[in-house]
Write a structure and sequence with these properties.
By secondary structure, the protein is α+β, with helices and mostly antiparallel strands. It starts with a strand and ends with a helix. It is 39% helix and 22% strand. It has a 7-stranded mixed sheet with strand order 1-2-3-4-5-7-6, with helices on both faces. β3 and β4 form a beta hairpin.
Amino acid sequence: MEEEIKVLVADASHEKYVDTILKTIEDAAKDRGTGIAKRTHEYLATKMREAKAVIALSGDRFAGFSYIETWGNKSYVTTSGLIVHPDFRGKGIAKKIKDMTFSLARMRWPHAKIFSLTSGAAVMAMNTQLGYKPATFADLTDDEAFWRGCEGCVNVDVLHRTNRKYCICTAMLFDPEEHLPAKIPEEVIVRITKLERKEAEKELSK
């Protein structure tokens, strides 16, 4: 019998999957002939520890992943790095991961605009179902840290030539005030509340 695939908000116990995740993302980008925003082992591990990542597992096997980034003083959010392992594609896992990252982003930053830059038709379809609408690049964050992530893409010359007005990717934007497509478990909400309290205490002690 096929093992159930669970989609979870990641935590420190999932750090053992980081290298597999990075390799899966890299291989998928090569297959598609597209670039990726380079991320380190520590970067993804930190996302897991901060409850800013979602992982799909089939028993102990890695099945899929995505993480959340905030930009422009948390006024913009992206759900990034969506990947499904080749052994588990075609099972609707990407949609479940996308729903969970979207819900997590909406819960943590309810007033932030959520945006996506993608060249994938499947991601565009999922974004549309969640309420994203096509946008211009000018509608997105002007946070330079976000745009530096595009430097690893094979198409970055297009972005430079157009003075960041457009590129191969399509921009999509979600403005708040929509229903959440997936429920965040209560224990995750408690964990996030503790993390945010620690973050606030750290800021006060500076």
